Amino acid sequence: MSAPHTPVERADFDQVIVPTFAPAAFIPVRGQGSRVWDQSGRELIDFTGGIAVNVLGHAHPALVAALTEQAGKLWHISNIFTNEPALRLAKKLTAATFADRAFFCNSGAEANEAAFKLARRYAHDKFGPEKCEIISAVNSFHGRTLFTVTVGGQPKYSDGFGPKIQGISHVGYNDLDALAAAISDKTCAVVLEPIQGESGVLPADQAYLEGARKLCDQHDALLILDEVQTGMGRTGELFAYMNYGVTPDILTNAKSLGGGFPIGMMLTTNEIAAHFSVGTHGTTYGGNPLACAVAEAVVDIVNTPEVLSGVRDRHERFKRGLLEIGQRYGLFDQVRGMGMLIGCVLNDAWKGRAREIFDAAEREALMILQAGPDVIRLAPSLIIEEADIAEGLTRFDRAAAKLTQA
């Protein structure tokens, strides 16, 4: 019998947690589907999906069953040994994508760290040490390690931590001319998000991704697609590159892969993977049986025509409702993104005020997100029920009405 839990409240966060986050004023304690309950028993509609993580909502029975079954078998065995869930998951992911090989880790940052290291090692082995430069996009986000935060194109996250990793440059997103001017025979990789998530839910233009692929081919550089946020059905295809018909050399994913259980991955080809030999990279927890068992259940459910077509249908439903609210209250007139990754771009009158809208929605028991100060971001469950969409939009409408009347 376990000891009783010590009572805690939101104020405790400010006393005992390192202040890298400023969480909302309430503490969620239970979730079911796309509804969440806080400590007081208040019910909220969840349009955040744990920031594009809870791909099947909260407490999905298939994920609970997969985790519970594996928990009774084997939690951790280390990478001195392999395990069945990791092998099954890798086989399903490679069968469904361009890739031949998978590398499992614990987060999107770790997946990108592995991708950037692999790209440099591949170029070093094939072309020599001078070919080590990485190009990414301005306002991109690729993680919080020193390497990934330097590749990310947001100085507010990378400044103030001493010398930065060298050989990284940034060019404007969706600007093919700028990329063409920057790329050279010293470039080992170009890394792009198919949809820039953190900086405003901005999709890549078709011609931009196609052009980036061609430029990489011309300069013997690898194209890395960071699908940490866009992968695992989020855009209405299993991975966003499938919407564009542009195949990367390396793909990274995390967030939705575990449906809430921490796991990340890197996918690549046999040729490229061969440049990570035994001992060149590693992870203690990566490929953990618990994480891989849950992720396998996620893949089995998400990679079906019913779920993927449902994501596209839900996008249209959200878009219609959001545009009506935006126009009715003069908040925003553009809704962009794909599938269940949606950005509402605030108009000039409301620029910089995304936090106010976030707070107003919370007062109406609706959980939403920001993507910078000028965009409201929604990343709900891929299988959110129609009744929850309707009720959530009603609450959003109510929040907008009160905010604009104030």
From TrEMBL:
Reaction equations catalysed: N(2)-acetyl-L-ornithine + 2-oxoglutarate = N-acetyl-L-glutamate 5-semialdehyde + L-glutamate
Binding positions for N(2)-acetyl-L-ornithine per the UniProt entry: R144, T283
InterPro entries documented for this protein: Ac/SucOrn_transaminase_bac, AcOrn/SuccOrn_fam, Aminotrans_3, Aminotrans_3_PPA_site, Class-III_PLP-dep_AT, PyrdxlP-dep_Trfase, PyrdxlP-dep_Trfase_major, PyrdxlP-dep_Trfase_small
Main localization, broad class: cytoplasm
Compartments, as annotated in UniProt: Cytoplasm
Pathway entry: Amino-acid biosynthesis; L-arginine biosynthesis; N(2)-acetyl-L-ornithine from L-glutamate: step 4/4
Binding site residues for pyridoxal 5'-phosphate: G108, A109, F141, D226, E227, V228, Q229, T284
Protein family (similarity comment): Belongs to the class-III pyridoxal-phosphate-dependent aminotransferase family. ArgD subfamily.
Extra remark beyond the main annotation: May also have succinyldiaminopimelate aminotransferase activity, thus carrying out the corresponding step in lysine biosynthesis.
Protein name: Acetylornithine aminotransferase
Originating organism: Stutzerimonas zhaodongensis
